[in-house]
Amino acid sequence: MADRAGGRADGGAGGRADGGAGGRAGGRALFEIYDEGFASPTWGGVETALWYLVHRLRARGVSAEFYPQSEGADLDALAARVERERVDAVFPLVESPLFEGGQWRRLPGLHARTVRIWHDVSRLADDLTTPPPCPAHGTDAPAPGARCTAEGAHPDAPVREVFLRELAWTKCFPGRTVIPWAADHVPAKDLRDARGPVVLQLGKVETPQAELCLRRLTEAGVPLRIMFATWSSQGRKARELVRARAGAGHAIEVLESYDIRTDWERVFGGASLFLLPSAFHETFNFAAAEAVQLGVPVATLGEGGNLPRFASVRRGTLDELLDRVAEGDRDVEPVPRLSMTWEDVAEKYADVITEGRRDD
């Protein structure tokens, strides 16, 4: 999920740039963005992804424009715009009402141009945990009459689906494409110091578990540099816990906000480990990917969706994970960096856009 804080940049949420291609040579696309836009230094995963994707697409001659979530709420107006401006592909947010009920039947022309990027699993799991196994598509021999657990997300709709990784629950969508995100918006560096602080992100476990993290690690004398998943209620509650601990004289540095584009060294410089306890199913996790890009190993829980791709240390329970981090030996190697670059990502999305190209 993304941090929803922000403002506008590069012409605003509806800012337009055609990359000098006149709007047709490389196709035309619209991308929905949260109303707050891009100006906040606390933007999150969706903002990061769309910012770098769109700018690389524009460099390739694709006409790519953002539209705000409030504008996307009027589906009839959006459909009219797609028709009027001869848009080849429109990329709504996962939360868009476009994916609710029978809207795809009511607006078939809009849906024929729609690409859904699965930034999170909120359409399949309200609590953002791993979607349940599908009895119709999650087995080699489905029972007769088995119903698809993704039924409410309309896998049969004429919508192109993009997943960030092939997983069991993605098999419910027959027209899927897998395109990972990239992390080369931060440099490939080795910032790790095995004697340095642990960077801890809070906000993806419930408050009692966040309190357990703080208590166990501070009692063990582990120096902490803490940041938050600011979009979640758990993240906001964790801030209060951290302030109380920091006020009690513990070795805690608090990152209230940062801009990873310029503050990457302040966030991960000299860190021994990035500790990310998450109960969520992460379709991608930029903080973990950025840590690996900067040479800092990642420690996390269980499966966690895409998190295992970035983790050097994984444990099945929070207590086991904290045991491992608190024991003092944090001299572990980060996993290999992603090979995918934003240029690679843009190339694949340019293909998706031109697949829906309208020549009328």
Structure, explained:
This protein is of the alpha/beta class. The chain has a six-stranded parallel beta sheet with strand order 10-9-8-11-12-13. Strands 1-3-2-4 form a four-stranded mixed beta sheet. A three-stranded parallel beta sheet has the order 5-6-7, with no helix packed on it. It is built from eleven helices and 13 strands.
Share of residues in helices: 25-40%
Kindly provide the radius of gyration, computed on alpha-carbon positions and rounded to a whole number of angstroms. Answer: 21 Å
Envelope shape = globular
The biggest beta sheet, please? 6 strands, parallel
Question: What's the topology here?
Answer:
Layout: E1 16-17, E2 28-33, H1 45-59, E3 63-68, H2 69-72, H3 75-84, E4 89-91, H4 103-106, H5 108-111, E5 115-117, E6 160-163, E7 176-178, E8 198-202, H6 207-219, E9 224-228, H7 233-247, E10 252-254, H8 260-268, E11 273-276, H9 286-293, E12 298-301, E13 311-315, H10 318-326, H11 342-355
Parallel strand pairs: 2-3, 2-4, 5-6, 6-7, 8-9, 8-11, 9-10, 11-12, 12-13
Antiparallel strand pairs: 1-3
Keywords:
360 residues, alpha/beta, 4-stranded mixed sheet, 29% helix
Q: In a nutshell, what does this entry contain?
A:
With 360 residues, this protein is α/β, with parallel strands linked by helices. The chain contains eleven helices and 13 strands.
